[in-house]
Amino acid sequence: MSDADLPDRSGELIEGRFRLTKRLGAGGMGEVYKAVNEVLGREVAIKLLKPEYARVADVVQRVEREARAANVVRHPNIVDVVDVLKDANGAPVIVQELLIGEDLATYVQQRGGALSEAESLDLMIPVTEALGAAHAAGIMHRDLKLENVFLDRRNGALVPKVLDFGLSRNVGEGATSRLTATGVAMGTPMYMSPEQVQGQRDIDQRTDVWALGVMLYELVAGRLPFDGESLGAIFVKVCTVDPPPLATVAPHVSAPFVAVVSRCLQRAREQRFASGAEVATALRAARSGASSAINAAGRIDAARDVTLAAGELPEGARGTPVLGSSQPSPAPERASTLGPRVSHASPAPKRNTAPMIAAAVATFTLVAGGAWFALREREAPAAVTPSAPPPASPMQGTTHYDPP
Which residues of the chain have pLDDT under 70? Predict the structure, then answer.
């Protein structure tokens, strides 16, 4: 059933409390309605599954997983889940705070496809802090991308909110269900880490760190670090090829920012930051304008350069949750808040990728086939690159935007 053919459920009462008042959007496997709690008078957003997915066990499980994860991690930059209900047909219904604005992908497109470093930092530091809170609670997101960050417009400010924990998993949780089965790559191809692409069982929060690196790269470069004409081509690049150097494709970006992104995108996860909180700490150091690094005690040492060495940031560093600090403005109109530019560090020596290429080719058919099977029944949201549109999570493609 196409979105245009979906019946408008406005006026329906859910569990005797929540009256659906206006459909805000539909896409992927679900719809979002504006609703009001008739007991409390509070306006909320209601996420419903489309009828054809309401009885699909894996989809229902994913919706329930999303609600649990978002409720466990209470953070001002993660969408607040108010309740989980059942509609008259027994399908799960997520009740969450009503957000007004647009997702980060739309925001970037409206500003010419890229943002300044300063604005990217303003928007992404709260996101990394939110992920740090999730990681501290033992939860990884596994489907981070620009579309899953919503910019809520409140009192003249933009407040980033992380959405859609539908593919989330507890760190250390075994891949025992079809949702996370070995050999089936779950996520959005252009943002997936090498270990996700390979369908490894033991992925941890560092897979989110990789996705944060992809997002940071995309925001300032106006392009993805990994793309291709097919799913398989993307997967091979992710596993075997370094992305075009950010200092080359975005020469206006400072060396500390480049170093943070480069460390996030290390294929060996042991060489990445250990958590979202560590990424937040490094981004705050980059925003300070100094060529700096975090020493083992967690203090800023302005005399040292930011490097890509594993272990450079402290284990378990935690960011301070904030509600989105300053109000960003379109990149061309905003002057950088950073200090004097720092000379770009010399590029790291090229890896010998031949063994990795051989391994990727050997596993390519199995991985790509598994990923295609996992993604083929999802309806993709707006494509980031025309050649390889990302898959949708159960509620992906829907919006909380409520026009004034």
Answer: 1-4, 70, 166-187, 290-404
